[in-house]
Specification:
This protein is α+β, with helices and mostly antiparallel strands. It is about 40% helix and about 25% strand. It has 4 helices and 4 strands. It has a 4-stranded antiparallel β-sheet with strand order 1-2-3-4, with helices on one face. A hairpin with a 4-residue loop joins strand 2 and strand 3. The chain is globular.
Length: about 110
């Protein structure tokens, strides 16, 4: 199935957990649907031998065409060896300030 807004709207929610629905035209691009009814566009590829999946945005917040363009960019970065999970972890670690660490330490002692 080609991922379009109308097809995404018709995807049924699973009874529990989540289900994945992949696009026929762009390998690694799809949609994840949760039991709560949340629908998110995703991109998945192998990076250094490990499967990595990243969320591109929620259905309704971005369009299927915007998600497809983002997926092409993200899949290209993954093919070049960029691990989105490692980048996210690095960005989170860099954003912590010494003041925040000190306050957390003193608050837990």
């Amino acid at each position: 199935m080609k991922t379009t807004a109308s097809r995404v709207a018709r995807v049924a929610t699973p009874g529990k957990g989540h289900s994945l629905h992949w696009d026929d035209e762009l390998k690694g691009f799809g949609i994840r649907v949760t039991a709560a009814g949340a629908k998110s566009y995703i991109a998945q590829a192998k990076v250094n031998g490990k499967a990595r999946r990243g969320t591109l945005g929620r259905h309704g917040t971005i369009t299927a065409d915007q998600a497809r363009r983002k997926a092409k960019t993200e899949l290209g970065r993954m093919a070049a060896g960029t691990d989105p999970a490692a980048e996210k972890k690095h960005d989170k670690a860099v954003s912590v300030t010494l003041e925040a660490v000190t306050e957390s330490y003193l608050g837990n002692r």
